[in-house]
Amino acid sequence: MIAGETVYVSLLTKGQEDAYGNRADVYSEFAAVDNVLVGRADQSDETDRGTPDAVRADITFCFPREWTGELRGARVRRGGKVYEVIGDPMRYTDTNLPPDIPWNIRTRAVYRDG
Asked: Which of 34, 64, 78, 104 has the fewest CB atoms in 10 Å of its CB?
């Protein structure tokens, strides 16, 4: 049987405007989300970006159906590393998922070291 794990999510909100009318990004406190299916991390070397020891790791998180947060711009913490969500993950409609599948939102995230 496939089992999910607990990860911690910090959601993006827009803060107050600066003098130029731009809103600052503000993140919520990290909150636990149970039963998240975690995929394999693919790593790549980032030395071509001018940082000799930089590593990038892409990972996939599948969030449970009952979780209703907005993942665009969110951060996910797992095992001491914080991943940034890429893009704007969308929920599948329940009619497109078999009832015995407990996960709904597939999220790609990236961790950059260096």
From this structure: 34
Q: What is the DSSP string of the chain?
A: ----EEEEEE-EEEEEE-TTSPEEEEEPPPEEEEEEEE-PPEEEE-GGGT-TT-EEEEEEEEEETT-----TT-EEEETTEEEEEPS---PPPGGGS-TT--EEEEEEEEEEE-
Neighbours of 18 (CB within 10 A): 9
Which residue is associated with the tokens 């911690």?
A: 8
Q: How far apart (Å, rounded) are the C-alpha atoms in residues 103 and 63?
A: 5
Q: Do residues 11 and 28 lie in contact, with contact meaning Cβ atoms separated by under 8 Å?
A: yes
- Count of alpha carbons within 13 angstroms of residue 7, beta-carbon side: 27
Instruction: State pTM to two decimals.
Output: 0.76
pLDDT tens readout for residues 11-54: 998 777 888 888 788 899 999 999 998 887 665 555 555 555 56
